[in-house]
Design a protein that fits this description.
- The complex is a heterodimer of chains A (285) and B (255).
- Chain A is mainly alpha-helical and 285 residues long.
- Chain A has helices at residues 7-35, 52-58, 63-91, 96-112, 114-125, 130-138, 151-175, 179-187, 192-220, 224-229, 237-247, 251-284.
- In chain A, helix 9 (192-220) packs antiparallel against helix 12 (251-284).
- Chain A is globular, with a radius of gyration of 24 Å.
- The two termini of chain A are 28 Å apart.
- Chain B has 255 residues and is mainly α.
- Helix content of chain B is 80%, strand content 0%.
- In chain B, helix 4 runs antiparallel to helix 9 and helix 11 runs antiparallel to helix 12 (227-254).
- The model of chain B has no long low-confidence stretch (mean pLDDT 87).
- The chains are: A mainly alpha (285), B mainly alpha (255).
- At the A-B interface, helix 1, helix 3, helix 4, helix 5 and helix 11 of A face helix 1, helix 2, helix 4, helix 5 and helix 6 of B.
Chain lengths: 285, 255
Amino acid sequence: MNQTPSRTHIGLVLPAILLVLTLIGWPLVALAWVSVSQIITVNSEQSSFTPEHFETILVGPNRRFVFNTLAFGIVVSVATIFLGVLLATVLDAYSKRVRMLAIALIVLPKFASIWAVLLGVIVLASSSSLVNRVVVGVGIFDEPLRLNHTIALAFVGEVWLLIPYVVLLTSLRLAEINPELFAAARGFGASRWQRFRWVTWPLIRVAVIAQFPLVLVWSLSAYFGPALLGGTSIDTLSSQIPRDGFENQNMPRAAAEAMVLMVLVGICLCVPKMLQRVTHNREHS
Amino acid sequence: MKLLKLLALVLVLIGFTAPVWVTLIASFSSDRFFRIDEGQISLRWYEEFFSDRRWFSGFQNSVLIALAAAVGSTVMGLCSALGVSGATSRWRGIVTTLLLLPAIIPPTAWAIGLLNFATRRDWHDSYGLLVAVHTLVALPATYIILRSARERIDPTLYLIARGFGATPWQLFRSVTLPLLKPSLAAAFGVGFVFSLNETILTIFLAGPNQETLPTIIWPQLRYSATPLVAVASNAMLSVAIVGGICVMRFTRNRI
């Protein structure tokens, strides 16, 4: 029987909650204030209320940052979910041992060292890389492809970084499916595609849809893809925040960009939950 | 047909893990352009990495901060997991939402907020702040691992222990802790790796004395990467893999 939290419950949780409030809650509230202040640099003391930084981002010339962030986030998350589910489904056809090894190979490098992956992508995309040598050698192109610091590489790199999560979560869901269902479908003469369409997909659909907001949030917040692999070819809110905060020394604008990004992330998390609640209420009324 | 299927899988996996193999090979390059010409495998960059004070102290800082953050996040994750067990779902929901915030908040927004906040309070440029922030970064993962492990413990064990007159402390010491040991090891390992890879917040908050490997790698990777970056990435990868193997061995022995 679950009980209302006792003093012990609260006492145990309190250090973590205090840390979250001190290092996340308080700084973000302070940042919200900075975003509507007229101070120019971090050390400046004078401030007054102004919505000008939000106007610049939402209706002014910098609205392209919001558009780029949304476009980048949506394309990356759709591609990541599609490829991740595809890969997990393909892996599901192998024996448990092979599957575990394959999942480990996909997941571990990303978790163990993000730098090894990023540097590898940069070297692979360089003009003297093996990929380019093959492309030129086979005669597909006359000269090496310029891939570094392009939008394409930013997309590819970010998908590469996010796909392990989707493969891992989808594989866990696939492992829960009763194998007798596939045996039964095979017994009825179902093809591989029919088995996926009528058995696998209905059983993993909810898990896949549930992953989407999370992947979307991570791709909206993506920094390494746009800032490192994309260079200056794509300006998202995430890559613009350090630029305005450090290089341009415009903390209020960086703060306003951070607030807009937080709102976008909040919407991505809240809308699916609200839709779920509405559907649930409709089904039960 | 079976062999063909396996070969296809091997090809997909090689393609998928290609960046890591490329980084590994690039670290043995003899020149600074990541080239390996015939028979020119060199350990030059490894020697330079371990003899260069800046790189080596960055490596030490990374490992020390990650160890401290792993301990902090595991203890906090354990306390929080125990603090929500048996409580109402509303309480669990509130605590879980708050503790998962570090995994959801955009890191650049959080980092600029922390920088603005820490600069005004003179907290900037301190190991304490870095360890606290890294602890928070690892907390969502350690909390989830330990909460699900705590929920898997059979409640009858507690009933029996209470029947024998065990106090809450004895319950924790003799029932909860032994059963959670493998998950504690796993949480520690995950916390360590999460902290080791943390970059964005560290770039914003670390002063010249607290440089970690990612903060040294980052500008090099952006402007002029040398195989030293590959060596540093491989050092982090090796530490994480060795740590993971140790945790797996410990976990296996305890199950």
